[in-house]
What we know:
The structure holds two protein chains of two kinds.
Chain A: E1 13-22, E2 25-35, E3 40-44, H1 51-58, E4 66-72, E5 78-80, H2 86-96, E6 97-100, H3 104-107, H4 114-124, H5 130-143, H6 160-172, E7 178-182, H7 190-207, E8 211-215, H8 218-224, E9 227-232, E10 235-241, H9 242-247, H10 252-260
Chain B: E1 11-24, E2 30-43, E3 47-51, H1 58-66, E4 73-79, E5 85-87, H2 93-102, E6 104-107, H3 119-128, H4 134-147, H5 164-176, E7 182-186, H6 194-209, E8 213-217, H7 221-227, E9 230-233, H8 237-243
Parallel strand pairs in B: 3-8, 3-9, 6-7, 7-8
Antiparallel strand pairs in B: 1-2, 1-4, 4-5
Amino acid sequence: MTDFVPTETEPLLEVHGLTRRFGALAACDRVDLSLWPGEVLGIVGESGSGKTTLLETIGGRQPATAGQILYRTAGGAAVDILALPEIDRRRLLRDEWGYVQQHAHRALRMGVSAGANIGEPLMAGGARRYAAIRGTALDWLRQVEIDAERVDDPPKQFSGGMRQRLQLARTLVTHPRLVLMDEPTGGLDVSVQARLLDLLRRLVREHGLSAIVVTHDFGVARLLADRLMVMRRGRIVEEGLTDQLLDDPQHPYTQLLVSSVLSV
Amino acid sequence: MNAQLSAVGRPVLTIAGLAKHFDLHLQQGVRLPVLEDFALQVRSGESVVLDGPSGAGKSTLLRLIYGDYLASGGAIVLSLPNGQRHDLLSLPARQRLLLRRRAIGYVSQFLRVIPRVSCEAVVAETLLLRGVLPDEATERARALLERLHIPRRLWSVPPATFSGGEQQRVNIARVFVADWPLLLLDEPTASLDGANRASVVELIEEARAAGSAILAVLHDQETREQVATRLVTVRSPLQREAMA
């Protein structure tokens, strides 16, 4: 008999009361969220809503003022990321998480070859055989639709869209169990955005990625996210299934945001 | 009315006391009531067609069941062939998502086109999300596109440039490529010509015969008579007010 709804698994990530203060200002204020394996959670909001701060705080790029980040590791243990010693935390995030930045040049090494950019995280994880690393790099260039002939070219010779795709390859090559993405299509031309979105959708399905995607673009959210959270002044004001939240928003602020978009 | 009433089975969808209003916060908090105290049961092997003037809340009802709209009150219970029962209105979002992949098929009025995704990939995705292997998913998608008279040379093209009728047939194919305990159909034949309408009626009949519970909005009189095993009238509180 078909099992229509599988028995509930444990969340991969549970964030409780996460707060990041700058003096009197709470850029991220008592945020709760959960992410299950294979799920894409979108966080939408305007500039200054605190969504990037939230992502950076979850990803260990900004210190949290308060809260808990419970993560279920590949080994099955649930650990509070914020309570780990610095060295363990760094190692865990390097081995099991990936982070995609809006500006690819901040994540890439612009002067070394595309192949080396993909190979580097593998070597940091212990890979040593040159031929295997190069083979994997070529495979990932293909997956992100970059011509294999460009493997020896440095990303400073690449267009914005190619750099972003190279960043995806560099991030995903280690098969992270959790991927955090900050405006992955931000600053790209519309046609380049469409290609990147299509690529992201395919990678999410083929690799069963679990991801949190921050975006101000409701079209991106509609295409990528299973669930959405709306952020305003550091707080989550509404959450739900992506189409429900966009088609029947409840909170006045969400209604304002959705009604301000031309067509999503 | 459809005469083949055979094999009407156990209840699949049970709705009680369902209410929906929209609070328009940007329009001085105007509250629009659309459904009030609505009840309905649909059984396996039934095709229930919703009847009522436009604005009665028929599409809203389908969207509430699918979870595209949030209900304001009441209960919607889905009973599945394996014995699982789900109170849809209290189900966590992620479980509802899983139900959508396997249990509730929804043909919306218009296809939501995804840039760069080919017609056959749009249809195959329904199966891929259920874990069907890519080759088999593509094969089944193609067979159905053929049946719905989508020209072969369009299969690898994204449907953005297709005609309204072609887009609607892709929209139908992406749902009917799989089996569903519950099917929600919102004007599936509205922009189709006679031959294609007949193909769709045939698909609906096959699904019903295989045990799906079907709830549909159909304005076309002929299609409705071919499909419906029962008619249910929907009228919004505002329309009842206007008629009183």
